[in-house]
# Entry
Amino acid sequence: MMESVYIIAAIITLLVLVSASVSDWKKREVSDIHWLILFITGTAVLLIRYGSDPLPTSFAALMFILISADLIWDREPTLKSESLLMTGIIMSATMVVRMAWGTDLVQAALTVFAVFFVMNLLYYTGIVRGGADAKCVIAISMVFPLYPAFGEFPLVMSSSDPFVTVFPFAVAVFIVADVLAVSPLFYYLARNLIKGDRMFPQMLIGYVKPLSAVDEEKEWPIQDIIDGEIVIRTRPADDGAVQRLKGAGAENIWVTPIIPFIIPLTAAYVIVLLIGNPFFLIL
# Structure
């Protein structure tokens, strides 16, 4: 029965990710309805998979719901509301651990818990710049906190529990997506070498473009004005950089494209779902 459930969940997830990818490509934004569908799917899979142990499963489902609320609820953050949500999430996870220690349910709950906090950390520190990207990884972790298996898939699995714990399904998808996302660097390098734009490290992460032609919805400037001088930034500048550069009389600047990261996440999802975690081949 669970194999059929996993197949249905996998198809739903793929359809949602494809839809999100199209939106990310066209508008560089993704509606939260995509992640809501995956949150509901993940909670349903959880209840089906572990419903025979209702009490700890109920706490795990509550944790899923609270995490979903935190990510979907459009609100003005207050110390009270944030504290209540975080307390509820932590307490729910704690109850699952206490009541179901030694079972797969604990591993599933702790995986979602860990992915939620890690992706929030990466987002608020600016390492992951897109809120939809972080939500996507968390949503995938809810649908598949553990590696799904159906038929002959995935082709590669680890026989070592520590590796599976350290590299859960959603983390593997995120890492593979990062690898796919940096593949355009080879194109930028070749393009810049041919055109003679050979400033390092800009030549690896972007290209030169007339300032007047910069599309701020799809490109980030990697130059800015600091103390009256045009300088290179190793990370994308803020939203006011283009206006500051125009005010300084800049004509051509280095930019880096805003990668619609949902697209490599979708490709990585298919790779890890069918082939497995590539890191298991070397670990």
Observations:
- DSSP finds twelve helices and five strands in the chain.
- The chain has a mean pLDDT of 85.
- Residues 222 and 236 are 5 Å apart (CA to CA).
